[in-house]
Structure formats: structure tokens, C-alpha cells
Amino acid sequence: MPGSVEPVEPVRCEPYAIDLAHKHVKSKNRSAPKSDNVYLLLLVKLFRFLARRTDSNFNKVVLKRLYMSRVNRPPVSLSRLASLTRNISGNTAVVIGTITDDERMEVVPKLSVAALHVTKGARARILNAGGEILTLDQLALRAPTGSNCVLLRGKRSAREAVKHFGRAPGTPNSHTKPYVRSKGRKFERARGRRASRGYKN
């Protein structure tokens, strides 16, 4: 009819506050190391390639550990290395971190290790025992899929700082180390340290 108005279909709007494009989704995991060390960046490039082109989970784990901060790459001592590889003969121990010397250990067994860094003392003792030390790029040439390799890492909670974490020192059943100027007769020896002064932990 003349003069009649045709009904207009309502425009459907997408609901607000839904991030359909996932623009604002941020992964908390590292995808590259923070360090500017060129040798580390070359290792990342190498293991990124190996992780992509091989089906080996070993390379993916090594790559992830190369991204980690130093706190998350704790050192491994020679004694710990020897005890962990006691029943694994013919395999290479791989540490994405530092291998340190242990003066308490008298005899070092023959070891085959690959690490980011080996201290001077540890290097001398491993080589004197007839062992071998590989860099990670040499390891990639020898075992591109991580065959006959054992990934090891140190104890993350062994840091001095970790002893101060937890329940407040002085509270019942707390074994947290207090920040004290000195350890002696005059320092924090009352409540919580003696049964006669409230309680003793």
C-alpha cells in the first residue's frame, strides 16, 4: 500500500565483553629466553628446529628448559650426578644448567655428560676419570632425538631463599627460617624457641 512502512529486521549484535578473536589471551609461559647471550640463542634456534622436525619429546623438554631463568635451572653436583647415573651405564647425562664440583666426593666414576656449563674443578675431575664432556650442540649431532640420554636437573628448593618461605617464623608448627642479624644467645631465643616462654617449635 502507498505510504506503508516496511518492517525492518532488527540488527543482531554480538554480545560485548567476549573476546572472540582471542586478542587479549596471554600465555604466561616463556617462548624465548630473556638472556641476550648469543650462544644460548643459537642453541635455542637449534633445538627449536629439532623440536619441530622430530617427534622426540626430549628436544621439546630441552628447548623449554633453555628458556628458563637461572633460579629454575639449579646446578647439579658431581656427587648427585654420580648417584643418579649409578644404574644407567652407557647413557649420557644431560643437564640444562651447571655441573659443579663436590669436594666431599673422593672418587669420581667415569661419566658422559652434556651441559650448558661445567665448572673448572668439575671439568678436570670428570676428564681425569676418563669421562667425556659434551656441549649441547655436540649432543644434538650425536643424538638428535635424545636416544641414550638421561635428562637430569638439580633441586630447586635447595636455595637459601627458600628456607625463608612459608608460615611466619615464630608461629606454632612453623619451621621457616627467620631473617636474623646474627645467630647467638641474644637473638630470637624466647617465645617459640623455649618451652618456658609460651611454646617450643
List the helices and strands and how they pair.
Blueprint: H1 38-53, H2 57-67, E1 76-77, H3 78-84, E2 92-100, E3 112-118, H4 120-128, E4 132-134, H5 136-142, E5 149-152
Parallel strand pairs: 1-2, 2-3, 2-5, 3-4
Sum up the structure in keywords.
five-stranded parallel β-sheet; alpha/beta; about 25% helix; flat; about 200 residues
Give a verbal description of the structure.
It is a single chain. It is built from 5 helices and 5 strands. The radius of gyration is 28 Å and the shape is flat. Strands 1, 2, 3, 4 and 5 form a 5-stranded parallel beta sheet that branches. The chain has 201 residues and is α/β, with parallel strands linked by helices. The longest helix has 16 residues, at 38-53.
